[in-house]
Design brief:
Blueprint: H1 2-13, H2 19-36, H3 44-47, E1 54-64, H4 67-78, E2 81-83, E3 89-94, E4 97-103, E5 109-117, H5 126-136, E6 142-144, E7 147-151, E8 157-161
Parallel strand pairs: 1-4, 5-8
Antiparallel strand pairs: 1-5, 2-3, 3-4, 6-7, 7-8
Helix pairs in contact: 1-2
């Protein structure tokens, strides 16, 4: 991690990136690094009370002004694997994690985080149970490609679904 930060600072000092790009990249790097750390286990007694148990962060959606530059930066610097590149967005995979970079305005913004729900893809009762709970809580549900999107209490978009959302 120290070598990555040192390289980023070097690029900034050499004028290869702006202060804003440096700060955004450091923030994303820290987020990715913390996601790779093992999360503490949820006690079974707590997990049993939830309708949907999150097993991992599925992806982070990152709005950018030039996804190709961002794609090349992350693929070149971190060796992230590029997939589903459609000319406007792509997926950058690393380990079991995905960073989706897409051309959108306003740029330089993480617009949502998607969570993988346990058994979403294998147990047909999970999705209707989650949907019923979201409705019971009075949340505004938006459905896309087999997943649900709802606002958290601060209005930040939360996506939930299966592994391939």
């Amino acid at each position: 991690m120290e070598s990555i930060i040192a390289k980023l600072l070097q690029d900034f000092e050499q004028g290869k990136m702006t202060r804003r790009q440096l700060i955004q990249t450091l923030a994303l790097t820290a987020t990715a690094a913390s996601a790779l750390d093992a999360a503490p286990a949820v006690p079974a007694a707590l997990a049993d009370g939830y309708v949907a148990k999150v097993t991992s962060i599925n992806h982070v959606s990152y709005q950018v002004s030039d996804y190709k530059k961002v794609r090349d930066f992350y693929a070149g610097l971190f060796g992230m694997q590029v997939s589903r590149d459609d000319g406007m967005q792509c997926r950058l995979s690393f380990g079991d994690n995905i960073l989706i970079v897409r051309n959108r305005t306003p740029a330089g913004k993480v617009d949502h985080i998607a969570y993988t729900i346990a058994n979403w893809d294998t147990d047909k009762s999970v999705k209707p149970a989650v949907e019923a709970e979201l409705k019971r809580r009075g949340l505004n549900i938006r459905t896309t490609e087999g997943s649900f999107h709802v606002p958290d209490p601060e209005g930040f978009e939360v996506q939930m679904g299966g592994k391939e959302q």
